[in-house]
Amino acid sequence: MKLKLGFSPCPNDTFIFDALVNGKIDTEGLEFEAVLEDVETLNRWALEGRLDITKLSFPAYFKTAAQYTLLNSGSALGKGVGPLLVSHRQQPFSEAEINEASVVLPGVHTTAHLLFSFAYPGAHHKSFGVFHEIEDAVVAGTAALGVIIHENRFTYQDKGLVKVTDLGEYWEQTMKVPIPLGGIVIKRSLGDALYNKVDALIRKSLQYSFDRYPSVSAYVKEHAQAMSEDVMRKHIDLYVNNYSLDLGAEGRAAVDTLSEIHRRIHTNA
């Protein structure tokens, strides 16, 4: 049986899925067709039901939960892993200034957008772009502020940008739970038996990579968009952890908390 599997080319995802899609583990008769795209593209595709299994941001999952169900393995959750609000301006911003400033974010359906809206519900001058273009947009003055994710957490200072707010830290301090960034979902129509099999295989694939870490595979390097191995490891260290092996009760509770905030924000919009 062949299943279409979508995930991003970022090191955390390629690290998790390398063994699964490249024949390094026994896939027990399943074949996985890997489709690598940026997460906002995967979010849109999930809304269209295009893929059998896919990485997506949690706000996109909340909108597609009738069609997809969340797997226990493969998620990106944690502490100190949230998106950052950055600017080229060295002076601090007041909340009123942030509410009136132009802000570029990495996609309407991303967790970064939800966390920004949670911290700054009065900010309405938003635009959206591909995550790796946001730093340059702020440097060029296209927007006064930008919300950065992924490896840009490690590079924004090199471009003269400064942190305004750690949106993940704000979430953790306010809600007292880890930050749910993205999950792996599977179509409900595929049934419980396949859910359990795929869940176990993803966990096995991740364990395969963990067992060989800090070695970084050629597959991870191939898709890492010219970042150094040091940045790749920082990326993996930040976003891949025990929650990625199994969400567990704490991880599920954090997702439920984010779902409630998502519901409130969209009810009041």
Task: Please describe what this structure looks like.
The chain folds into two domains: 2-77 and 180-268, Periplasmic binding protein-like II (D-Maltodextrin-Binding Protein, domain 2), CATH 3.40.190; 84-175, D-Maltodextrin-Binding Protein, domain 2 (3-Layer(aba) Sandwich), CATH 3.40.190. It is 45% helix and 19% strand. It has helices at residues 11-21, 39-48, 58-64, 95-100, 111-119, 134-140, 167-175, 192-212, 218-222, 229-239, 242-245, 248-268; strands at residues 2-7, 31-36, 53-57, 68-70, 76-78, 84-87, 103-105, 126-128, 145-148, 162-166, 179-187. Strands 1, 2, 3, 4, 5 and 11 form a six-stranded mixed sheet that branches. The chain has a five-stranded mixed sheet with strand order 8-7-9-6-10, with helices on both faces. The chain is globular and about 55 Å long.
Write the layout of secondary structure elements.
Layout: E1 2-7, H1 11-21, E2 31-36, H2 39-48, E3 53-57, H3 58-64, E4 68-70, E5 76-78, E6 84-87, H4 95-100, E7 103-105, H5 111-119, E8 126-128, H6 134-140, E9 145-148, E10 162-166, H7 167-175, E11 179-187, H8 192-212, H9 218-222, H10 229-239, H11 242-245, H12 248-268
Parallel strand pairs: 1-2, 1-3, 7-8, 7-9
Antiparallel strand pairs: 3-11, 4-11, 5-11, 6-9, 6-10
